[in-house]
Design goal:
The complex is a heterodimer of chains A (307) and B (533).
Chain A: H1 2-29, H2 43-52, H3 59-73, H4 87-122, H5 127-141, H6 144-158, H7 176-202, H8 205-212, H9 217-245, H10 249-255, H11 260-270, H12 273-301
Helix pairs in contact in A: 1-12, 4-5, 4-7, 4-9, 4-12, 5-7, 6-7, 6-10, 7-9, 8-9, 9-12, 10-11, 11-12
Chain B: E1 2-3, H1 8-15, E2 34-39, H2 54-63, E3 68-70, E4 76-78, E5 81-87, E6 92-97, H3 110-121, H4 131-135, H5 141-145, E7 156-160, E8 163-167, H6 189-195, E9 211-217, E10 221-226, E11 240-245, H7 249-257, E12 263-265, H8 271-277, E13 282-295, H9 308-317, H10 320-328, E14 333-334, H11 358-371, E15 380-387, H12 390-403, E16 408-415, H13 417-425, E17 431-437, H14 444-447, H15 463-472, H16 479-492, E18 495-507, E19 511-512, E20 529-530
Helix pairs in contact in B: 9-11, 15-16
Classes of the chains: A mainly alpha (307), B alpha+beta (533).
Chain lengths: 307, 533
Amino acid sequence: MFAFILRRLAVAIPTLLLLIIFSFILMSVAPGGPFTGERALPPAVLANLEAQYGLNDPLWLQIWNYLVAVVVHFDFGPSFVYPDRSVNQLIANGFPVTLTYGGTSFVVAVVTGVALGVAAAIWHNTWLDYLAVGISIGAQVLPNFVMAPLLVLVFTLWYRLLPGGGWSFNDPSFWIMPVIALSTSYMASIARITRSSMLEVLGSNHIRTARAKGMPEHRVILRHALKPAMLPVISYLGPVFVSMITGSVVIDIYFSTGGIGKAFVDSALNRDYAVMMGVTILIGALTILFNLIVDVLYAWIDPKIRY
Amino acid sequence: MTKFLATTALIGALAMPAFAVEVAEGDTLAENQYFNYWLLDAIKSLDPALNTDVEGSASIRSLFEGLMNEDAQGEMVPGVAESFEVSDDGLTYTFTLREANWSNGEPVTAEDFVYGWQRVVTPETTSEYAWYMELMNVVNATQIVAGEMDPSELGVRAVDDRTFEVTLTTPTPFFINTLSHVTTFPVPRAVVEEHGNAWTQPGNIVGNGAYTLASHNLGVEIVFQKNPEYWDADNVVMETVRGITVNDSNVALTRYQAGELDRVQIPAGQYPRLAQESPDEAISVPRGCSYAYVFNLSDKGPEALKDQRVREAMALSLNREVMVDQILQGGQRPAYSWTHWAIAGFAEPSETFEDMPYEDRVARARELLEEAGYGPQNPVRLSLQYNTDESHRLLAVAAQQFWRPLGIEVTLNNVEWAVHTDRLQNQDFEIARYAWCADYNEASTFLDWFRTDGYNSGKWSNAEFDELLVEARTADDTAPLYQRAEEILAEEVPAVWVYHYSLNEMISPAIKGIPRENLLNTWYAKDLYRVEQ
């Protein structure tokens, strides 16, 4: 197991390096720059800006300097568009927000999705199954950019129950709508995957054996069916977790959470190179990390994978 | 050899007490004085030298105060400057500062202005608004911005703690009007030097405005609290001001209706409905911006556009009335001049086709095109570039439809903002959507754009036009000069004017004091108050 993890880590680091280098190159060939505004800047001001951000160096040197700053000093540099803040500060501001509503959404989506899927499989072809399938299809076809303004309309304008947006770590009433909007479609997918995988496992030989020897049904489900049925769900959850905790542009825009998802998109539109690279690295590293965790979990659940 | 100024507007500024909030008769003040206003996006910078946008400016006007402020009509009223004198040659302005304090209790001195102004032009500060000091014609600004001279050579001087002196390269009739712009605000040197770029963050920032920064959660909320150190604090009624970011204008409107916001901009196309439903709350006032389709007349531009008849035909056949009345629907006005119609002292050019019926315009356009050798059988093919925005797209589609029957086939080219501006600056376009907003309330803020060495993305050039603008800098009566300049633009058609902006907002009836007659829509939180509903 340890060797397996080491092997995967050995691949992860060059992957991340390649990601940084390619993103940097792609970014520098995109037309326009962080300082192309409506007015052309005076040459001396532009020269100073470029010197301050190292943009007048050759590309390879820029990449090298950037790698050194990030790897050695863990410094993502100053933001181009928010001159009062550094990228580290911007990430430190936005990421906890996203992590909070994204993590909560993940838990909500997994718990409700798995419960719904398992229930549908156990009571296969009953009204409960139809209801669960109906809910999950409904939730999947309702995109979050429709759901978000709808939630604000209902809970903020009509019932005046929840704040229409903004963020507070201390007041969970700010979290409720973002969590509902973000988790529903994932919940639906998880429910559908769980249901079909559970149905398959419930039809297999070892379950029939367990039932034949008189094992109580709840033990059959919890001990013998759920674990193997979770394999496809877990492989789905790795990337989902990353995309949830690294933020959703839609959630950030409609609920003005100040999360990192919108910051990422804005940085690309504004050509805020530093923020764009910082968030790319964050998302890239998390993706690699959680894929690794999923692989380890996989290997732990199913020894066949450990090759 | 100095004297008090002779023009009436400026005497007014001197004689009048500073503009303070006046609670109207019959209004009962609400117990809780707070104001929540909408921000579309995160505030990029609270540094007066680094700020580049309107929302940032409004915040900075709460936290800092410059020499002059604007009143509800946009007239200049004293800020930190109690009075000023101007020399006979119109080149030296001497400001007497009032007794005012920074929020940390230190006095505001002339030295703070000297430092603030020098800081803007220092290339190392990397101020994107360094050009503003050039526009103001401050001595040596251009050379310092170009890196050819030391910032200490800037034409500003602290005569003593309460006397600030500015020297200009040329008499500048609008100089006083430039002083309410945040770029000219004083900056506390000690704080900037202690914290560097982080000096504007909560806990660090020290200002001389009517408010202090209570908190700033970037992209979520910025909160201002009344500053007890402000010199006119006794006359400030509003206690707490919150700028709340909502990135979607429709959600912002919903939150306004839920009472979470007191002021929002109305999303495109919704003004007529809201004006009918809530006539007390929906307002439409002129906003000092003009929208145009700019032609690329540089060497890189298309051959067809070099023919003035083609350009004129395009200007004639664009049905602005339909664009404004059917698409925008928010009190905008069809444009027949580059300068916004509501700019102070601006006389619209006499010879426009504004009064010509649309059918006649189209007929005339056909003739012109035919003379130029084009028509439906032999169409002109051009591309129209615009940046991503729903209303830009709708207007471009409409323009395409107006031009097509005449034999002007326009393909639409949508690009994101960064690409759009990049191409504009490199003359890498054929026709481009463009808009300009006034920096100060005087026609030159628009006309300067088309000077040969102005921003002028299409590279149109006309010697007489350039001369008129130079002449206007020292003229007693600028109106005929600007009018003639607009006539030249109308004759040569370097761009098609489309419409003049309006500002459409929902404002809570509980909030009083938001100016509606100031073309630049400059507002000060200190002038607002909340009434009992």
